[in-house]
Write a structure and sequence with these properties.
The chain has helices at 7-22, 34-49, 56-69, 80-92, 99-122, 138-160, 168-183. The chain has 184 residues and is mainly alpha-helical. GO terms for molecular function: 3',5'-cyclic-nucleotide phosphodiesterase activity; metal ion binding.
Length: 184
Amino acid sequence: MYNDKSVNENFHIARAFAIARESPDLDIFSGFSVDDQKQIRKLMIETVLSTDMAVHFDLLNRFTSQVDAKPDLSEWTDRTLLYQMLVHLADIANPSRPFHLARGWAERVIEEFCDQGDREAAIGLPVSAMCNRTAMNMPRAQLGFINIFLKVSGWLFCTNLAHPGRQIGWQRCRGCLSSCSQDG
């Protein structure tokens, strides 16, 4: 399905469009011209596909290059990359929530990964990285995620584009890092 590329993300955006078409009261496109609908659809697809962790480092590199070239957002003629980065950050920002919320969601994600690993093992496939229930260490996994993905992305975004007073989420992330360190 979807040529094995961003399968989850492609499914979700395709399903969102199908729901909009099937339900007139949910059709977010009805008030737009056909040309505007095409532009909005393209932007939505590109933005949702940017939430695939397989494109994380490419997205970060493209964003860094754009910020280096034009640090003033008012000079960006195409803001697609900005929208992609915003949605991607929202997608990975769970550790920036208050710890009791972040932990609950992290537990759900880890359980989903381990369920995948169990299914892989049951049909004789090698268990994917981060999906081995017996080797899973949630605090270590969360620390790795924060250090590899979230800290760099959040820091880049906050230091270059966000107002300093709006960095409370990244302060919470540091609190989560501290809590994970104590648990592991």
